[in-house]
Description:
- This protein has helices at 4-23, 26-43, 53-72, 78-86, 97-107, 112-122, 127-134, 138-158.
- By secondary structure, it is mainly alpha-helical.
- Helix 4 (78-86) packs across helix 5 (97-107) and helix 6 packs across helix 8.
Amino acid sequence: MFEIEDLYMKYKQDIYIYLISLTHNHTLAEDLMSETFIKAIISLPGFRGESSVKTWLFGIARNTWLQQLRNQKKDVGFDELLGMYVSNDITEHIISKEIVKRIKELLSTKDDRTRNIVGMRVDGFSYCEISNKLELSESSARVIDFRTKLWLKSILEKEGLL
C-alpha cells in the first residue's frame, strides 16, 4: 500500500508545523511527530483511504497531542476539551465556564447520536472509531460533527461569547 518512509519524508514537515502551531514548543512537536508516525505505522493496515493520507496523519497528530495534554495535565477535563472542540484555533480562545455551560445547554437540545459523536470527538476518538461504535458511516459522523460545530460556533458568536 504505502511505504512508511515515503510517507514520513513527504509529510513530516507539514505534521511538524501543525504540531508547532498546537504546542508552541519545538521539542514537544518533534516528540509528538515521532509518536504520530509510530501510531501511523501501527494503524496503517486499517487505513481504508476514505480520506487523504495527509488528513489521516493530521488526525493522528491531533489525537496524539490531545492525549499528551491529558497525560501532562491530569485534570484536563471534559469541559476544557469541549471548549477546545468549538474553537478553530485551540490557543485562540480561553474558554470560560460560561461558554462551556452554554455549549452544554446547546448540545442538550440535540439528539443522542449527535451528542455521542461530539462527546467522542472531544474525548479524542477518530471518525473510524465513532462509526464502528455508533454503527454509522465515517462520512456521516464527519458531517454531523462538522455541522454541529458550525451550529455551535454561529450561536456562540451571535451571543458574543466567541
